[in-house]
Amino acid sequence: MNARAASGKDMAQQEIYPIVDGPVSAGIWSRIVDGVYWARIPLPFRLDHVNVWLLEDGEGWAIVDCGIDSAEVRAIWAQLLASLPGERPITRIIVTHGHTDHIGCAGHLVSTLGVPFHAPLIEWLSARLRHAASLTTLPDATASFLLRHGCDETMLQAFDDERLRVSQYLGAPPAELRRISNGDRLQVGGRSWAVIVAGGHADEHVSLYCEADGLLLAGDQILPRISPVVAVFAHEPDASPLGKYLISLDQFLSIPEGVLVLPGHGLPFRGLHARIAALRQHHVDRLDQLETVLAEPKTAFEAGSILFSRAFEGGHRRLALGETLAHLHVLVQQGRASVRTDQQGRQIFYRTGG
Q1: CA–CA separation, 177 vs 302, rounded Å?
Q2: 230/200 Cα distance (integer angstroms)
């Protein structure tokens, strides 16, 4: 009985994750289907890898996403470029969004290869702004934002140290781009990809859908096992990225359930609609948990240390604070929480429901 159950479970897993033999090590291309290859770039973070993709593009190959910029990653790219299938050249570089683990090495690769760079405008600009900010001290507006949400002076230094640690992996982004916009069709070799621009995780995150071959290059918008970071940061302190993210998922419901999803992290998978439902439920559960936490009024930092205790303990407090605020802003919008300012200038969130 246990053997049969295990066998059934394995078969179900194989249906969801049909490609279990991925890249055996960094620097190796692994075939997905004809004209699509996959490699992994290591990350020095809790999430320890990012997926990069190779799409057949006529007489060459297009790269999708680039990993961080570091001596190790540049060496891995040298291996990958030396082992391109068919020894065809790179024709262009595409990035799904402007986060460091996806765009960090793009400037180096574009400069080395002398090829065009494709990206959403806001994602390119945001990466350039973050690169410029990495050369400065912690901005006053960021310090005020952190103090307002419950951080003390010691914590400000810890947050700045984390900011600088991550920023070292963002190389100077390419100096020019070919803009990708929602509704575009990107012709890459013999495949036509519909461009889906969605918010929440990033302002203009790009996913690419090839209807003819049932492929969805989803980037970080839809991940197989984890929820992408959806967070509020100092440059837009009143934003509601979680609301945008949940709405964005509707854009993918017209895509068939059986499409093969190629994510930014983790294994390629099937079961798109089931995964969307699970992501929605995850955030519904988080909102309910946070509402319970607010039975006693708290700053965002205090609430986050409970809601995202593992992240806080694991040195990811900056992102966890941002995620907490994203959920708090939705609770306020839904009338389930309110916010007041105390005598120290801190924002205090409290439950307003029954």
Answers
A1: 41
A2: 6
**202/240 Cα distance (integer angstroms):** 12
Q: Can you point out the beta strands (E) in the chain? A: 30-33, 36-42, 49-57, 60-64, 90-94, 117-119, 178-179, 185-188, 191-198, 205-210, 215-219, 260-263, 337-341, 347-351
CB 73 within 8 Å of CB 49: no
Amino acid occupying residue 306: I
Q: What percent of the chain has pLDDT over 90?
A: 81
Q: Side by side, which strands form the sheet with 191-198?
A: 185-188, 191-198, 205-210, 215-219, 260-263
**Which amino acid would we find at residue 80?**
L
Residue by residue, DSSP assigns 208-238 as EEETTTTEEEEETSS-SSSPPP----TTSTT
- DSSP E strand boundaries for 58-164: 60-64, 90-94, 117-119
Geometric angle at alpha carbon 19, from 16 and 24, rounded to 5°: 140
Predicted confidence (pLDDT) per residue in 164-176, tens digit = 888 999 999 999 9
Residue 208, beta-bridge partner list: 195, 217
Three-class SS of residue 87? helix
Rounded CA gap, 150 and 277, in Å?
33
Contact (CB, 8 A) for 234 and 139: yes
Give the three-state DSSP class for 72: helix
Q: Measured at the alpha carbon of residue 201, what is the angle toward residues 198 and 207, in degrees to the nearest 5?
A: 40
Which one has a higher pLDDT value, 97 or 166? 97
By the 10 Å C-beta count (0-12 exposed, 13-18 middle, 19+ buried), 22 is classed as middle
CA atoms within 13 A on the CB side of 174: 28
Q: Which fold has domain 10-285?
A: Metallo-beta-lactamase; Chain A (3.60.15)
pLDDT at residue 241 greater than cutoff 70: yes
Q: What angle do CA 159, 240, 134 make, to 5 degrees?
A: 30
Pick from 257, 285, 259, 272: which is nearest to 224 by CA? 272
Which segments of 294-333 does DSSP mark as H helices, in order? 300-307, 309-313, 317-333
